[in-house]
Design brief:
CATH class of the largest domain: Alpha Beta
CATH topology of the largest domain: Rossmann fold
Number of strands: 13
CATH superfamily of the largest domain: P-loop containing nucleotide triphosphate hydrolases
Helix content: 40-55%
Strand order of the largest sheet: 6-7-8-3-9-10
Strand content: 15-25%
Largest sheet: 6 strands, mixed
Structural class: alpha/beta
Number of domains: 2
Radius of gyration: 23 Å
Distance between the termini: 57 Å
């Protein structure tokens, strides 16, 4: 089980031969466009501050060019930072010497790539144990561990197949098995599911969530898809032009978008799958009554349970099973409709 989170503090990345010379100017207010036009350097990341909780999934999302893949590559220092800190277990990864960095990459992190990055000349089992081979783990032990994770990701019977004999979804399962076989605390997933068909993508999200419920890895997941971010993320950080625009839980972002950019992102979100019953419940008025539902239930789930049972009111329970509030179908329906939808209806009526 992961015991440490990741703290990113004041992280800057300026691409170019003299990037360090311009950090002060960027801190003083020089824009990305000015830096490029005047000095021919590109601002990749600007003052990134994110706390990534131990044992949770932090999703970093944004459109192409937002800096999300640049950010994840700073965590295992595949990209050298221009300024700032990336702290893990009390150590700044940005200042590790060559040996410590090599050990950190080999023993503490594992990466799952968008394009699978499997070795075509190695079978499924051989790809899965590749990291253990590099560590010098005895073959008998590595094969035992590799076989276990192949079975856990649903690839039993495909151990001797080669990557070109597998579908995209199966190849990504190999990539996930390889990462888990290393037993690293930190799992870095860079657009890991973006190349997959929608149904396979949802299936792989389910695989990750099922395994994460047991393993509690510190997962950093990069995506450009808000629905994926909301389904996977315990915490979400949204980037734009190398800066964090907003970070928080999925509920916080959907209910309180920081600006017009975030509002545009979330306006088409199915709020019923994000907002929890405990978030919109009303105080208990009088004697508690209604169908009991967990406060962690999504509004969509709560509405379905209430409708199937023929109830219009629900008694919302806290994590200890004690009544904490009331909820009715009218409140659920109102909360599931975004403010943007109300505005659209108003404009249409006018």
């Amino acid at each position: 089980m992961a015991s440490h989170g990741i703290e990113i503090k004041g992280l800057y990345k300026i691409f170019g031969p003299r990037g360090a010379e311009y950090v002060g100017a960027v801190k003083a207010g020089m824009t990305k466009a000015e830096l490029n036009e005047k000095h021919g350097h590109v601002l990749g990341l600007k003052d990134i501050n994110i706390s990534m909780p131990a044992g949770g999934i932090t999703v970093v999302m944004g459109l192409s060019g937002s800096g999300k893949s640049t950010l994840i590559r700073h965590i295992n220092r595949l990209i050298e930072p221009t300024d700032g800190e990336v702290i893990y277990d009390g150590n700044d990864i940005c200042r590790m010497n060559e040996k410590d960095l090599r050990d950190f990459r080999r023993l503490k992190t594992a990466m799952v790539f968008q394009k699978f990055a499997l070795l075509p000349h190695r079978t499924v089992i051989e790809n899965t144990v590749y990291g253990l081979d590099i560590q010098g783990i005895p073959r008998q032990e590595s094969m035992k561990r590799g076989q276990y994770w192949i079975e856990r990701v649903g690839l039993a019977g495909f151990e001797r197949h080669y990557p070109n004999q597998l579908s995209g979804g199966m190849q990504q399962r190999v990539g996930l098995a390889r990462a888990l076989t290393n037993d690293a605390d930190i799992l870095l997933m860079d657009e890991a599911y973006s190349a997959l068909d929608p149904l396979i993508r949802v299936d792989m999200q389910t695989v990750l969530l099922t395994l994460q419920a047991e393993l509690k890895k510190t997962v950093v997941f990069i995506t450009h898809d808000l629905d994926e971010a909301l389904r996977l993320g315990d915490k979400i950080a949204i980037l734009r032009d190398g800066q964090v625009v907003q970070q928080g839980t999925g509920q916080e972002i959907v209910l309180s978008p920081a600006d017009d950019y975030i509002t545009a992102f979330v306006k088409e979100v199915n709020r019923g799958r994000v907002i929890r019953a405990s978030t919109v419940m009303q105080p208990i008025d009088g004697a508690p009554d209604g169908m009991p539902i967990p406060g962690s239930s999504t509004l969509e789930s709560a509405a379905r349970l209430m409708t199937e049972a023929g109830h219009s009111r629900a008694l919302v329970l806290d994590e200890n099973g004690a009544p904490s509030g009331m909820l009715d179908l009218r409140t659920i329906i109102t909360a599931m409709v975004s403010p943007a939808s109300h505005e659209t209806e108003k404009m249409a009526a006018e």
